[in-house]
Write a structure and sequence with these properties.
mainly alpha; 414 residues; globular
């Protein structure tokens, strides 16, 4: 029996691939439709929104913009996130461009030895984010039909990634001696980088613009095709899980947790789909018919922060050519999803015009406004302290877990 278990563990991947191949044949009709939909999504949404950013960020890496940004933001990034100033370039471009541009920039930084291994792994955790175009247009306007919901999700998404960056920076503080050694290493890295940038082939000029642009396009095409492959593969995998009803069985595991947190059990399957693949999952979560639509918004905030296993594997494939580990990335994205959901819940609770639960008619809105104005002071204070207590307990709980396993964190991740 023990030999059988060891054999299964050793051959788990070949067995999994064989089962996927069998399912591809058995459910060929539905898989073909899923692959077509995934390919259409990639061609109409991913390529137009990401490909130009890939080319531009690659071109910018051949200019002095990165070093200038590093000098400009060093006094901000170092005390806030415990990373060098050039991390600000990855942070800003990651927010503007969306998944997985931040990971691509950090991977390039590490290849050029502009950041240490620890800094690169922490940068991955909070610079690789959903883009504003996807959150505002695809989620806010297309799915919820409301601009302010998209703005809310974008703001809480940014606040959550900043929170994660600060937390990881605080837990990665080195001793004075180690910090001095790190600074010496950084100076040597910076010197070698400056020397390499002084070469004519590494800095873009009008003379070599065509060559640099061609290389940037080639690199961007490779990355965008890689993303397209993941989108299609995960579309097919989700289709297979649906056909075999494994997604339904897996969703039952989420039902007790959702009930404990006050969410409807009908979110279990869409939430599991979103954990596997972000775009399809957000669409399913937003489509669940609920009277209290704030539940849909909060769960979408979690999925946008977490990103899903599809994005996780994209990041893994991008950083595979470096020595960066994605363990901190997984922890960081999970925490970002939790913080984004928490911030969204508090915003919906305490900013009345953001709450969409009672927008059925103008009469209903007017009546709710009157009810809010006529609430007595004691009930408002009670509600305030209750929600504030939930927030404080949640944050303290995360901090206690971090401190309790701090030694394990450093042992495993560093």
């Amino acid at each position: 029996m023990k030999f059988l278990i060891l054999s299964l563990r050793k051959n788990i991947l070949p067995i999994f691939f064989i089962l996927i191949t069998i399912c591809l044949v058995l459910f060929s009709r539905s898989n073909l439709t899923a692959a077509t939909n995934g390919l259409t999504l990639w061609a109409t949404c991913v390529v137009p929104s990401l490909f130009p950013f890939f080319v531009i960020t690659n071109l910018l890496s051949h200019t002095k913009v990165v070093s200038f940004t590093g000098k400009l933001l060093d006094k901000l990034m170092r005390p806030l996130f415990n990373v060098p100033g050039i991390g600000g370039f990855a942070f800003v471009m990651g927010l503007i461009s969306g998944y997985p541009v931040g990971a691509k920039i950090v991977s390039d930084f590490r290849e050029k030895k502009l950041v240490t291994k620890d800094e690169g792994e922490r940068l991955l955790a909070f610079t690789n984010n959903s883009g504003p175009l996807f959150i505002l247009s695809s989620v806010g306007i297309s799915l919820f039909g409301d601009t302010k919901t998209g703005l809310l999700l974008l703001c809480t998404h940014i606040l959550a990634c900043i929170t994660v960056g600060i937390l990881l920076g605080k837990f990665s503080k080195k001793s004075d001696e180690a910090f001095r050694e790190q600074m010496i290493l950084r100076k040597s890295m910076h010197s070698s980088n400056v020397a390499s940038q002084s070469e004519p082939s590494s800095t873009v000029t009008f003379r070599n613009l065509g060559e640099v642009l061609g290389n940037s396009i080639n690199s961007s095409i490779f990355t965008i095709l890689l993303i397209g492959g993941f989108v299609v593969i995960f579309s097919v995998i989700i289709s297979i899980l649906n056909q075999t009803h494994l997604l339904d069985y897996g969703a039952k595991l989420f039902t007790p947790l959702l009930s404990l947190l006050g969410f409807d059990s009908s979110f279990a399957k869409p939430l599991l789909s979103g954990i596997l693949e972000l775009t399809n999952g957000v669409n399913l979560v937003a489509s669940v018919p609920m009277k209290a639509i704030s539940q849909n918004v909060v769960l979408c905030a979690f999925l946008l922060g977490f990103g899903g296993f599809s994005v996780l594997l994209q990041v893994f494939s991008i950083v595979a050519k470096t020595d960066l580990s994605i363990k901190k990335y997984v922890i960081g994205k999970f925490l970002q999803g939790i913080f984004a959901a928490l911030y969204t819940f508090l915003a919906l609770k305490w900013i009345p015009f953001l709450n969409l639960d009672y927008v059925a008619s103008s009469a209903t809105v007017a009546q709710n406004s009157i009810n809010v104005l006529t609430n007595n002071t004691s009930s408002m204070l009670t509600s305030f302290f209750y929600d504030f207590g939930i927030f404080v307990i949640g944050v303290l709980g995360v901090l206690v877990i971090f401190y309790a396993f701090r030694k394990l964190y450093h042992k495993v991740l560093n």
